[in-house]
Structures are given as C-alpha cells and as structure tokens.
Design a protein that fits this description.
By secondary structure, this protein is an alpha/beta fold. The chain is built from 7 helices and 12 strands. Helix 3 packs across helix 4 and helix 5 crosses helix 6. The longest helix is centred in the first third of the chain and has 14 residues.
Length: about 230
C-alpha cells in the first residue's frame, strides 16, 4: 500500500472517531511510518489519535508528536488533577485501592507503586487519561506477581490462539523468568498491538519486549500461497 493511500486512510479514521478533532492533527507517512503532529485539548484525544492510526492497514510504526494544550481553568491545577486521578483509580475495578501513588507537575502525572498484574498497571493509566488538565502520563508502577510460574509460554500462546484477528503461527514467544520477548511478523500495526496485549494480560508476566515486525505479507502467508 502506498504512503499516500495510508495517509488518506488515517485521516479518514481520525475524522470517523467522534472523540477526535481531526482538524487539529497533522499526518505524514514515510515508508509506512506515521508521524502525528498538531495539538489537542486533552491527553485522551492524543491517545485516541494514536490508536486510530494504529488501526489502519499499512502502518508500520508511529511517531507521536501531538502536543496537549488544555484550556486554562482553575480546576486544572496540579492538586485538583491529583485528587481526580486518585478518585478515578478508586472507582476503577482494575486497580486495587491504595496501591498506586500519584505525583503531578505541570499537568504531567507520574504513577508509582506495586501491583500484581500488568492489566492492573495498564488499567491505572487508562483510568486517568481523560482527566481535564492532564498533559502526559509516566507509568512507573512495578509488577510483583505472587502467582507461581507454570508454563508461562504455553499460557501466552493459548491467549494468542484465542484472538480471532491474530495469526499466532507467525509469532514466536520467548520467556525468560517473568520477561517475555515476542518475535515474528504480522500484517498490521494493530496485530502487533493485539499480540503484545495478549502477552501482557497473562498471569506472571512483568514485562514484554515486542520485536514483532510489521509487513504487508509475512512468511506464513507467503508459504500458504505457494
């Protein structure tokens, strides 16, 4: 797929998503690598734009350069943002209460603490991404799983096989302790993300090194066509 067509499809996807003001976002594509520029009013829109681009066929990588410029409001001071962040995590079913600490400086949130599961760490971040005034998030939450490691690789491979939109045969899983390395090829950036999410959601995984390559036609597909 040409860069021109990929760019147009991304623009269409941005305009299709009601959460995004596409008129404030610039898109360039070179060899399948997308650069997003411009400014948005909140951090949630920035993430939504990146996720929209990732869904488009032909995207091989994303450079995120969108700036968050929240509207000035007395409610956007750091103390208020911190209070709202703690409230949002307390209301989330994925985040154990009292396990995550929040620091805010000029609208940028830093999360620290220790949790058992990677989905909890991701849940803490997603719970706060739409708070007014947030300009960015640094997630420093540590993972300290208490579950025993019983054939972690098999559990990850099973999770990938359950994903209908993922060709698990093209992905290789390497497990070292609680660390997972993913290798292989998929035909979309979204497929690469789905594979990583499957690994991160597996009990006992503390980190994922995603080395999966995105190509229009990966080796498994080529072999099937012969």
């Amino acid at each position: 797929m040409s860069d021109y067509l990929t760019r147009q499809n991304i623009i269409d996807e941005l305009e299709f998503d009601p959460r995004i003001d596409a008129s404030r976002i610039g898109v360039t594509v070179e060899n399948g690598v997308v650069t997003l520029t411009g400014n948005v009013s909140n951090y949630g829109q920035k993430l939504a734009a990146e996720r929209a681009a990732a869904r488009v066929v032909g995207v091989r990588g994303i450079a995120q350069e969108i700036q968050v410029q929240p509207a000035h409001s007395p409610a956007n001071d750091d103390a208020e943002i911190a209070r709202r962040a703690l409230d949002m995590m307390r209301w989330s079913t994925m985040v154990p209460e009292g396990q995550v600490l929040v620091a805010v400086e000029n609208g940028h949130l830093t999360l620290t603490g220790a949790l058992q599961w990677d989905y909890q760490r991701a849940g803490a971040e997603s719970a706060i991404e739409h708070i007014p005034g947030v300009t960015g998030v640094t997630n420093l939450i540590e993972l300290k799983p208490r579950v025993s490691q019983i054939d972690l690789k098999a559990n990850i491979d099973s999770a990938m096989r359950r994903r209908a939109d993922l060709d698990h045969e093209a992905i290789r899983t390497i497990v070292t302790g609680n660390r997972v390395i993913l290798e292989g090829h998929v035909n979309s950036w979204n497929g690469r993300t789905i594979a990583e999410q499957a690994a991160r959601s597996t009990s006992g995984v503390t980190s994922v090194d995603n080395r999966i390559m995105v190509s229009a036609r990966h080796p498994v597909e080529a072999a099937r066509s012969k």
